[in-house]
Specification:
Elements lengths: L13 H8 L5 H28 L5 E5 L4 E5 L2 H8 L6 H8 L4 H25 L1
Antiparallel strand pairs: 1-2
Helix pairs in contact: 2-4, 2-5
């Protein structure tokens, strides 16, 4: 077993150690997952930008005098990019679009960052 619980592995039953292990967070793996997700977001944004730059967009804005505001009409190409999966990268589809645990991963990562920032603030305050 490669965890902080290896210190007490001979003093507690293995079943109890396994239950405790389920509540521990592997911060190194979580950090790697977070950076991969960030990389996929950036890759998808770059891909969409290059698609928009290479194709002619027919979107237009107009003023609606009844509502007294500007409205925007998307062309079919921009609609396909925004609301369908036709122009999504395969890694983005797998890891972000179809991932039911993405919100849990990002929430856990934010909590870890928050704890780390609080520790850094305490070090700066007491130094």
């Amino acid at each position: 077993m490669n965890s902080p619980l290896s210190i007490i592995e001979h003093k507690l039953p293995i079943e109890l150690i396994n239950i405790i292990q389920t509540y521990l967070i592997n911060e190194i793996a979580l950090e790697a997952i977070y950076y991969h997700i960030d990389y996929l977001y950036n890759a998808q944004d770059d891909y969409e930008d290059s698609l928009r730059n290479n194709n002619e967009c027919a979107c237009y804005r107009y003023f609606n005098p009844r509502a007294n505001r500007w409205k925007e009409r998307e062309c079919k190409f921009c609609y396909m990019i925004e609301y369908t999966t036709n122009y999504q990268l395969p890694g983005y589809k797998t890891c972000i679009w179809n991932n039911s645990q993405l919100s849990k991963i990002l929430t856990t990562w934010r909590e870890i960052e928050k704890k780390y920032d609080e520790q850094e603030d305490k070090k700066k305050y007491f130094s």
